[in-house]
Amino acid sequence: MHRIVVVGGGAGGLELATRLGDSLGKKRRAQVTLLDRSRTHLWKPLLHEVAAGSMDMHSHQLDYLAQARWHHFTFSLGGLKGLDRKAKEVIVDAVLDDAGEEILPERRLAYDTLVIAIGSQSNDFGTPGVTDHAFTLDNAWDAHLFHRRLVNTCFKANFANDGRVLRIVIVGAGATGVELSAELHNTIRVLAAYGLNQFDPEKQIHLTIVEAGPRILAGLPEYLAKATLNILQTLKVEVMTGDPVVAVRDDGLDLKSGKSLAADFVVWAAGVRASAVLTRLDELETNRINQLVVLPTLQTTRDVDIFSLGDCAACPWQQGRNVPPRAQSAHQQASHMLKTIKRRLAGEMPLRFQYRDFGSLVSLGTSESVGTLMGFVSRGSLRVEGFVAKIFYISLYKLHLWALHGFWRMVLDTAARIIRSQTEPKVKLH
Questions:
Q1: I need a surface site. Which of 103, 140, 154, 210 has the fewest CB within 10 A?
Q2: Residue 133 belongs to what H/E stretch?
Q3: Tens digit of each residue's pLDDT (9 = 90 or more) over 42-82
């Protein structure tokens, strides 16, 4: 059978492996393998909710092994280490447990069609101290660690009862940084209501966003950025723009202007780059942020049997720009790749990928807050805010679940979560 290997179980990679398994693996027309270094999947746009504590990652994670069994593909645990294009083999890194003991050795996966979809990570731009002193939200575990440390610090401040101020600085005013600040504003206040009687979030929590550029939400229309800034000011989130961070310390950070900010927590949410491993894949072409350069067909420029999609792919779009690194891009590319692979099995040439921008939504907390969600849809022609925008935002996640589980399982999952939410705390307390 034709061997298809999908590297990366993010939004695009997992959707593609699932649909390939249902359409080709089930009928034994192809052998489909998904490779990922993690055992579970969580939709990346939800990571700010995990970090803030409004979502429990353990109840929303999807197990790759279970998904593989249900949808007729094979899951292989391990990270991408290298590539042997001549032998058509993916080199998989060894898997170690928490104690450093080897679980699985380095090995190879043979392929006829290879799709690389390993996503992206934060770009520290070589800033000193980021690795040692800042949190990132690159995966669910990073977000969980931040939340756990924050909860512990709030408990400590409550016990001390000395009025200490906890300063949280978020570097980067893109969607992740803005959404995290608003979510933290809400969840910390809910957290304090669960027995933290000596802790006053209004006086003891200070949230700051630091942005190197001239304004927040640089990739979105200016009117949306202004409206979002007004809401952040209502939430008492301090926003500093036009002053890049030059160093991160264990007790704060330094700005290019010479200012220093004290911080108990620094969250780095500035910039995007792909993993450096992509620059070592047997001479495949990459750009300055390590993305694989692909043709409009999503084929890599130096090997027609290797494709790439999602955040790790530099796919041409319009006016010299690439397809933006968004969940909707990965979803559309996964649907395109399904058609392309079927055409390859039929001996037909791949088609060009056409990206359609359905707009953007920015989450600013719960639906009870004024202007909690705003954005635009239908190519930017319709502006939505408040509860209507909240429905649109939730629907994006539900569409992802629909793609992975089918309509009725998505509906049942939604109903079960609504029922369960009535007996659970509103925020994660540990």
A1: 103
A2: helix 130-133
A3: 999 889 889 998 888 888 899 999 999 999 999 999 999 99
